[in-house]
Amino acid sequence: MLHRRTVGDVMTEEVVTLGPDTPFQEVAALLDANDIAAAPVVDDDGAPVGVVSASDVLRHETGMPDPQGLDGNDERAWGKARARTAGVLMSSPVFTARADWTIPQAARELRRRHVKQLPVVDDDGLVTGIVSRSDLLDAFIRSDVEIRDEIEQDVMGRILGLDKGAVAVEVRDGDVTLRGHVPEPRLIPVVVGLCQGVDGVVAVAAHLAATG
After folding, report:
1. Whose CA is closest to 28, among 59, 49, 65?
2. Domain boundaries along the sequence of the chain
3. Per the database record, which ranges form the CBS domain (predicted)?
4. How many C-beta atoms lie closer than 10 Å to residue 38's C-beta?
5. pLDDT at 139
6. C-alpha torsion angle, residues 51, 55, 57, 61 (rounded to 10)
7. Which pLDDT score is estimated for 67?
8. Whether the Cβ atoms of residue 86 and residue 96 lie closer than 8 Å to each other
9. Where are the alpha helices (DSSP H) in 18-72?
10. Residues 6 or more apart whose Cβ sits within 8 Å of residue 1
């Protein structure tokens, strides 16, 4: 089987966390000093109870519920705009990911929840990392050389056991072109499917013939 990268492969393990009682000025300083867009708020056991983002800090700085300065009638939003601690400033409930999630699964969750990052929790519900949109994008932005090497070594060699050079692999901007021979006709769709499953592959064009 191909190794499909998971959230655990791309997440940031050294997570900057906040406590519910962390003062606002310290929250802003930590986000700025670590150049991060958000940080999870955790309880005494390390379980996430919310997330504070740069947008939350901006709301506080403008004194308005909306970062653009628009008025609002949401009492919770106004409370966050006047917050003095991370516990009041944070967004809750917090949506989390698991380290064994696939990259597409995490990407779908980010999109569904309309958030830019997800704390990653273990079986006990404790924070072990954080994954962002950029982390997930990096998993798909691979060089053509990396993609070609994985196809040649893992797909053609390790999985299918084809002779070296039986199938020539060309990759350009993520588009894969295959030329050569495979032992049986039924292997052609298998080869294409396996190549399409390689991270970073955009499309596969197969010019393959069967020798048997």
Report:
1. 59
2. 7-140, 144-210
3. 11-68, 90-147
4. 22
5. 73
6. -160
7. 47
8. no
9. 24-33, 54-62
10. 159
Query: Which residues lie below 8 Å from residue 145, measured CB to CB, with a gap of 6+?
Result: 171
Q: Span 7-140: which CATH code?
A: 3.10.580.10
Among the residue ranges 135-144, 157-166, 169-178, the one predicted with the least confidence is 135-144
Please report where in the chains the tokens 């499917």 appear, as a residue. Answer: 193
Query: What is the maximum span of the chain, computed from C-alpha positions, in angstroms?
Result: 74
The 3-state DSSP class for residue 107 equals: helix
Query: What fold is seen in the domain 144-210?
Result: Histidine-containing Protein; Chain: A; (3.30.1340)
pLDDT tier, 81 (very low <50, low <70, confident <90, very high otherwise): low
Task: Write the CB contacts of 181 (distance below 8 Å, at least 6 apart in sequence).
Answer: 166, 167, 208, 209, 210, 211
- Amino acid letter, 43: D
Amino acid at position 80, single letter? K
Share of the chain above pLDDT 70, in %: 88
- In a 13 Å sphere around the CA of 107, the CA atoms on its Cβ side amount to 13
CA end-to-end span of the chain, whole Å? Answer: 25
Strands 175-182 and 203-210 turn out to be parallel
Give me 37's structure tokens.
């867009």
State pTM to two decimals. 0.68
Predicted local distance difference test score (pLDDT) of residue 63: 55
Q: What does the angle CA 160 – CA 161 – CA 166 come to, to the nearest 5 degrees? A: 95
Query: Greater confidence, 72 or 136?
Result: 136
Please write the tens of the pLDDT for every residue from 187-209.
999 999 999 988 888 899 999 99
Q: Which two tokens stand for residue 97?
A: 């990911």
